[in-house]
Amino acid sequence: MREKILEVLKSYDLDKVKIATLGSHSALNILRGAKDEGFETICICREREKFVYENFGIADEIVVLNDFKDLLQDKIQERLRKDNVILIPHGSFNAYIGRFDSLLVPIFGNRKLMEWEIDREKQKEWLSRAGVKLPKTYSSPSEIDGLVIVKYPGAKGGKGYFIASNKDDFYKKAMKVVESGMISEEDVEKAEIQQYIVGANIYFSFFYSRVFDRIELIAIDRRYESTADALGKIPADEQLKTEITPTYTVVGNFPIVLRESLLIQAFEAAEKIVEVSKEIAYPGMVGAFCIESVFDENAEMYVFEISARIVAGTNVGIPNSPYSYILFGENMYMGRRIAREIKMAIGQGIIEEIIY
Ligand code: AMP
Ligand code: AMP
Questions:
Q1: Average pLDDT of the chain to the nearest whole number
Q2: Which DSSP symbol is given to 283?
Q3: Separation of CA 92 and ligand 1 centre (Å)
Q4: Which is the closest atom of ligand 2 to the Cα of 196?
Q5: Ligand 1 neighbour 223 (Cβ under 6 A)
Q6: Which of 215-224, 239-248, 265-274 has the lowest mean pLDDT?
Q7: Could you tell me the pTM of the whole model?
Q8: Are the folds of 118-133+199-238+251-345 and 137-195 the same?
Q9: CA distance 157 to 197
Q10: Is 312 in the pocket of ligand 1 (CB under 6 A)?
Q11: Which ligand does the CA of 117 lie closest to?
């Protein structure tokens, strides 16, 4: 696969590279960043959302698809290759396309690692090998011996997750989520049951630069989740009467500035995660990645997930986060950081190192 992509890259006019992405998730961030670094941009979106991308004026061209999956159609791919396009993948690529075996357009990043990201077992192996502290996982509902969070396959943005405290509670709540249509009964069987860490959620958006051979902290955020973040607004007695189950559908993000003495835990985790990435999926981590964590009452960091591409939480860092400003002394944000890396890699003749 990698050979085929590098073959395509060889046919490219590197002075005329355009940056393209799917119109959702962090496309505004990516396309603004590309323009700030002098690239021409293409937004590939659905008819309904076209208005948004036209409105912000960050796309030089807009390609309309009926469905995001149509990106895999030969004629669309052909059109993108003709324009020397480098695609920037984000969460909607995972959510709506999944595997990219038939996508013969160069991607910034490592598509093999994105496969590790969407497979919970592989992800756990990656994080375990990195030696970071993980929440305990239970192999069956009968083993539940404390507060757990129940998750489903794929990157679904927390939709349908629920919290349970024992086996009966698990089945009762699972059935409720099935009845609401958010998940299927099959999903219940495939659910991952994870120890629920009571603490503060912190999402670290890092960038692994091949050009500078270093890990950069670009932004930190937390999510705004429905209905988990709505519960505090309802008095406890009403919560008990209505039996509201917190769910975790993401609707937005907040920026975070972390207590400085805690940063070292995140950098240590990032270093180990990058190290292992090189062993599991050549050429290892490229560009944006996110470590999703909870800090408990002892300010100890538990990593519960990793994303091997830009996450939408980086949208809080435009035009800069405190961290990207400290590092670069100029406006810098994930979309722009990606475009800067592509520009520098082309300049130094090492573009094939950041493409898969
Ligand atoms: P969307 O195109 O908005 O459906 O996003 C695709 C996937 O990316 C979703 O299923 C979510 O898992 C994730 N996602 C989208 N926006 C955010 C966000 N603001 N924060 C965290 N995750 C997000
Ligand atoms: P995820 O889709 O895995 O990023 O998780 C969605 C949301 O569930 C997170 O933003 C957290 O609020 C929550 N969450 C996930 N795993 C845990 C955990 N092990 N302990 C506590 N909260 C969690």
A1: 95
A2: T
A3: 7
A4: 20
A5: yes
A6: 239-248
A7: 0.95
A8: no
A9: 18
A10: yes
A11: 2
